[in-house]
Amino acid sequence: MKTYCSYLDSGYVCETDGACMASTYHTNGQEEQQFRICIPRVSLVPPGQPIYCLSAEGLLNTHCCYTDFCNSINLQIPSGIAEGKGGSWGPVELVAVIAGPVFLFCLLLIMGVLVFQHHQRNYNHRQRLEVEDPSCDHLYLAKDKTLQDLIFDLSTSGSGSGLPLFVQRTVARTIVLQEIIGKGRFGEVWRGRWRGGDVAVKIFSSREERSWFREAEIYQTIMLRHENILGFIAADNKDNGTWTQLWLVSDYHEHGSLFDYLNHYSVTIEGMIKLALSAASGLAHLHMEILGTQGKPGIAHRDLKSKNILVKKNGTCAIADLGLAVRHETITDTIDIAPNQRVGTKRYMAPEVLDETINMKHFDSFKCADIYALGLVYWEIARRCNAGGIHEDYQLPFYDLVPSDPSIEEMRKVVCDQRLRPNVPNWWQSYEALRVMGKIMRECWYANGAARLTALRIKKTLSQLSVQEDVKI
């Protein structure tokens, strides 16, 4: 329907699906130029008596019609519109007539802004995911992807540094926690379920954010993934509105830590060699630097102990808890030391760490300290070896020389001043495997760090022993 519109221009014609309107009004007692406009159907409210089509006594005379150019009539304001007659409005109603459309316009404007912001957020989110790793579209999680599929993707995604961040978030936010399996100074460890498979979820307290971030960062180092290093799956920060939980998701190993395992079970000579060789293999890979664009920096653990080594179902070890690890950047010859105040476990500290003579600017110093701790772990394993029906109770290193929670001063006195080490029994000489283990330990415990064995040398020695003892790994 066409109508005249003289509100802006006397010669303007507009089209509408609603009504044509002509109106004239009084201002300061004088009749003003009338105007004509078109009103869209959505604005004809309420039905039957639209507010746009009402008159106000002595002030406003409005006429609405519904045919082409029907608003071409000339209107006059009657001098005496009867009071209370339908269709006439007083000053209050006039204010409502004017304010109503303004309010409606503001409401529509606000709704438009909110819709625009919603679409903008969705667009930015999609853009951010694409920026994180545009080459990993094939890793979006299909509904039938299992935990085993995910592990395979981790191994074949190209970088060797784990899944893209958006996939990590997807996994972490669909895990169902089952039971708590451990506690530490950082927080708690839970067994969780994800698509029919078990995972371990390490939940850090919010004050341990640096440790959480550091461990996740180290685990995602290029080419770090190895069968004897705990398999990292995902890291995520989950905000439930009250506090923030920091999650680190990894492979689940039902035997728990080496500390727990040795407390519950003795091991055969074959079992001892498998544990010792796999621990050396994991540490050798951690220490090794691989040069090239897809290379790997050397990493030192700095808190190696039986509680930070896990036992897999096949009786081999996986090194865990990399929150204190340091990386060596070969190109710049710098050491990336974690920015937190934690120190390692006092009982396992090397002499040079206890007496503070360690050269913090030389990366090999940190690797040598790891080797000292590995020697203590080997002592724990060998004590539990059942050879000829003989094995000893589980004990921590230096159990007979220091209290259960020794201070650095107490450890320094025993290790540095008195130069004492755990006792290696003479009867171990009767068995080749235990004799070799005892020799390795002593060569890990030298006061001079530079004289100690390397992880690779230990791995080779134990590999030869496994062949001699016909150990199947």
UniProtKB/TrEMBL annotation:
GO BP term (any one): cellular response to growth factor stimulus
Reaction equations catalysed: L-seryl-[receptor-protein] + ATP = O-phospho-L-seryl-[receptor-protein] + ADP + H(+); L-threonyl-[receptor-protein] + ATP = O-phospho-L-threonyl-[receptor-protein] + ADP + H(+)
Record: residues binding ATP: K202
Residue stretches making up the Protein kinase domain: 175-465
Cofactor(s) the protein needs: Mn(2+); Mg(2+)
EC number: 2.7.11.30
Principal localisation: membrane
Annotated keywords: ATP-binding, Kinase, Magnesium, Manganese, Membrane, Metal-binding, Nucleotide-binding, Receptor, Serine/threonine-protein kinase, Signal, Transferase, Transmembrane, Transmembrane helix
Protein location: Membrane
Domain GS: 145-174
Top-rank taxon, per record: Eukaryota
One cellular-component annotation, GO: plasma membrane
Topology with respect to the bilayer: Single-pass type I membrane protein
Gene Ontology molecular function: any one: metal ion binding
Transmembrane regions listed in the UniProt entry: 94-116
EC supergroup of this enzyme: transferase
Sequence similarity: Belongs to the protein kinase superfamily. TKL Ser/Thr protein kinase family. TGFB receptor subfamily.
Designated name of the protein: receptor protein serine/threonine kinase
